[in-house]
Amino acid sequence: MPDRQQIYATTVQLIEPFNKKDAAITEATRFAQDLEWDSLTVLDFVATVEDEFDVIITMNMQAEIETVGQLVDALVRLKA
How many CB atoms within 10 Å of residue 15? Predict the structure, then answer.
């Protein structure tokens, strides 16, 4: 089972191709506000994350995840 730090590092790598604003990525980075992602970008990114970590992120989970840190915490729970 990967630890939280590994999941965070992988998540940051996955964000890079979608980071058109070249924003600094931290645990507090917000997808909608800081990265300015629209719903289509979010769907593409979620599919990438699901493939990379072999998990399913439900629509309810997506609605609750606003920051990179929240996504990493969700992935840790899903991989446990």
Answer: 20
